[in-house]
Amino acid sequence: MPLATSRRGFTAAVAGLAASALLTACGSDSSSGKGGETVRIGYIGDFNGTSLIAIADAKGLWSKHGLSAESRVFTNGPLQIQALGTGHLDFGYIGPGAMWLPASGQAKVVAINTLGNADRVLAQPGITSMKQLKGKTVAVPEGTSGDMILTLALEKAGMSKSDLKIVPMDPSTIVSAFSARKVDAAGFWYPAAATIKKQVPDLVELAKNSDFAEQVSFPTAFVAGNDLVAKHPQKVKKVLAVLREAIAFRSAHTAEAIELTAAKLRIPVEQVKADAANVELLDLTKLDALTKDGTIDKWLKGMNDYFVQVGKLKRPVDPKTYYTGDLFTGAGE
Questions:
Q1: In 3D, which of 177, 192, 229, 203 has the Cα closest to residue 48?
Q2: Whole-number Å distance between alpha carbons of 115 and 219
Q3: 171 upstream amide cis, omega within 30 of 0
Q4: Are 39 and 89 in contact (CB under 8 A)?
Q5: How much of the chain, in percent, has pLDDT values that exceed 70?
Q6: Between the N and C ends of the chain, which has fewer C-beta atoms within 10 Å?
Q7: Of all helices (H) and strands (E), which one includes residue 173?
């Protein structure tokens, strides 16, 4: 099937896919823990976004800290930031591409989770360089790490988004559209990229996070609503205590954490294991040290410089205005 070459033709070809994706932007609630204060928490269905929630559910950590958790799966971080702002969530999980949202004052980063290496610029077979994407149709979930990796790769190639036909698209629609060869390329991530690979096994990976390791770090994080942090500090502390215990368990028992994540997501263990291979875990000792010595602030400052450059932020922001590292370390005392 030939690749779509115009916005009009492309839109007609995938309109049905997009409509379907919008109906499945987030999943149904699941609950864990009984009789405690209710906390509503969002996550993304991959190892980065799900593992701590899966551990907390399986090991009874919510009840241990006087909480009852209602968890909801989302397709990306910006949707969770929106849910925090409208009061439909208390906490959520975001990847690095959405970090500009708390930096712009829309939420607080309450816990750094991992360093990611799952983002890719994927291209159809036969496209072997970023330069060859000029004038091509490229799908991207706007405001996500897929958007970020695409922008960085274009910059490295001396290009910009204006050189492409950018089509904003929901992640599930990208899987369908790329597999059906309705787009030439995508700014995307694993494990969803592995699903595409089953349909397009000879796809080309034009860029990945590690290509930019010296330029910027890619932390994932848990976020909370501004009002919740300001008005309910004890609830925040309880949730952070749960996350800290889950982080410690994940570091010490990674294989079991993978199994628990697979069980929660109802997918094969081997699939989660492959996904986890794109993650750099950070244990509690390291997270506390990186928070206290200012390293995490440096990571966030580096990301803010990038977000200013691409127009997501108007000016650099002090990470201390949105990263509540003192609450994270304090929850362990």
A1: 192
A2: 4
A3: no
A4: no
A5: 89
A6: C
A7: helix 171-179
Q: How many residues does the chain have?
A: 333
| Contact residues for 207 (Cβ-Cβ < 8 A; gap 6+) | 120, 121, 130, 149, 150, 152, 153, 156
Closest CA to 222 of 52, 27, 38: 52
Rounded Cα distance between 98 and 141, Å, is 11
CA–CA distance, 330 with 333 (Å, rounded to integer): 5
Query: Each residue of 210-244: pLDDT tens digit?
Result: 999 888 889 999 999 999 999 999 999 999 999 99
For residue 166, the SS3 value is strand
Which tokens belong to 285? 């000792």
Q: How far apart are CA 87 and CA 231, in angstroms?
A: 13
- Characterize the bridge pairing of strands 119-123 and 204-208: antiparallel
Confidence check: pLDDT of 4 > 80: no
Tokens of residue 8, six digits: 């009009």
- Are 146 and 13 spatial neighbours (Cβ–Cβ below 8 Å)? no
Instruction: Assess contact for 201 and 146: CB atoms under 8 A.
Output: no
Strands 67-74 vs 37-44: parallel, antiparallel or unpaired: parallel
pLDDT in tens, 76-100: 999 999 999 999 999 999 999 899 9
Rounded Cα–Cα distance for residues 263 and 150 (Å): 32
CA dihedral angle for residue 223, residue 302, residue 52, residue 188, rounded to 10 degrees:
100
Task: Tell me the residue type at 61.
Answer: L
How many C-beta atoms surround the C-beta of residue 109 within 10 A? 24
Q: Which two tokens stand for residue 183?
A: 């787009």
Q: Which residues contact 317 (CB under 8 A, 6 or more apart)?
A: 103, 104, 304
- How many Å apart are CA 78 and CA 307, to the nearest integer? 15
**Are 85 and 113 within 8 A, CB to CB?**
no
Token pair recorded at residue 38 = 């209710």
What pTM did the predictor assign? 0.81
pLDDT at 5 (0 to 100): 35
